[in-house]
Amino acid sequence: MVNSHLKYESKQLATWYFTFAAIIFGAQLLFGLVAATQYVMPGFLFEIVDFSVARMIHINALIVWMVFAMIGSVYWLLPDETGIETVGIGLGKVLFWAFAASIVVVVLVYLIVQVGPADETSLWLIHEGREYIEAPRWADIAIVVVVLGFIYNLYATGMKGNRSGIVTVLMADMLAFAGIYLAGMGYTDNISVDQFWWWWVIHLWVEATWEVFVGSLAAYGLITMIGAHRKVVEMWLWIEVAMLFGSGILGMGHHYFWIGTPEYWWEIGALFSALEPLPLVAMFIHVLYDWGKMQGEESAKGLETSVIANKPAFTWFVLNAIGNFLGAGVWGFFHTFPQVNLYTHGTQFTSAHGHLAFFGAYATLLIGMFYLAVQGKNGIKIMNATKKSIWATSMIFGGVLGMTAALTLSGYVQVLVSRAQWGATWEGYFAGQASIWFTQGMDWRLIMGVVTFLGFFVLIADLLSIGKATHHKR
After folding, report:
1. What is the DSSP-derived secondary structure letter of residue 468?
2. Most exposed of 139, 219, 301, 359 (fewest Cβ within 10 Å)?
3. Which domains are delineated in the chain?
4. How far apart (Å, rounded) are the C-alpha atoms in residues 323 and 91?
5. What is the pLDDT of residues 50-81, one digit of tens each?
């Protein structure tokens, strides 16, 4: 069950990563709100923080805060899974400060310098101009160094301690995590070739290695929070890993429809992308099955108490199972087939999928890890929900669902007007943008973004205060 005290330096280091991740999470939401406002009021912060800059910070902050939270999650669970202190903890602390300092510098450059002369200087010192991975080349190298140092700590600890199935999966996954990122560091002036390798990072790095990582955290959380049987949980984990890699690797083909690759990618990408929701369904069943099984065992003993040791964290874990299936599965499936993607490509359908998929698949579970850290730090045996945690969960999850619905509506208008009716012409694009349903969708996206942003502040207030609440069992 949950470690009641921070007796391991590894767990203290994890709280550093979680804290910085929460700060960058707030920055991500802030600049997302700026970009959403500029969609409705194009003159907002004009020539101060232009839309391209706000969007760039919004997207890259999303990636960065999740990577910080992921590394923190591993440092948190390693002592529990291996039974020893993390090897190389001093190196981990140095790498944390180096990583944090690099991110601060990159963000300041984005804000102050913004654009460069479009030559090697820009690539090395300002940004590479490649969506999602726009960090300048020096920061790319710094990220690789940090991750390699982290992998050394993970491997050294796993090989020295009692290596569990969860740690074994993480060790294998982190090699792919570091290796696939390298595919996005090269440069070619052929846009099709560049996009080919770019998708290795955006799809394989995020949709394969991150999903396997989430499966590992879900397994750890179920064992930690409800006392699920390790053999059962790890069996599910291995099944999900096989399904994720089996469908995810060839499923990458659905990104190759329109970049000049051979047409056989149409069939390969469509088929295996259609299979990608299956492991997400398995994960959903996994969480609910284990919860019901453990609760049933307690009820059979005549005990009516809940088996959940951390109710706020478990709520976020359940939302991860739901959000992962909806965002990555259902909304991803919406526009996967080439016959559909011909019309939906480049519309707000993509943005709707991206918002719900990233949030549902990753943010939910990482927020749950925040609550596990608060529980361990405060020596709480059973952590109950508070009004703030309920409000934060409702506002953030409801806000993201609202944004997804609004963006889906706007994307639907673009498909009907800009693509089907006007035939993807410039006139059609502007007709779609001027449609009342499209503009109202953008308005509602902004409103729901405000709800999400306010929910973030409630979440932070709860994380800072819930450990001191008196209604927990200590």
Report:
1. G
2. 301
3. 1-187 (1.20.210.10), 205-306 (no CATH), 308-474 (1.20.210.10)
4. 35
5. 999 999 999 999 999 999 999 999 999 999 99
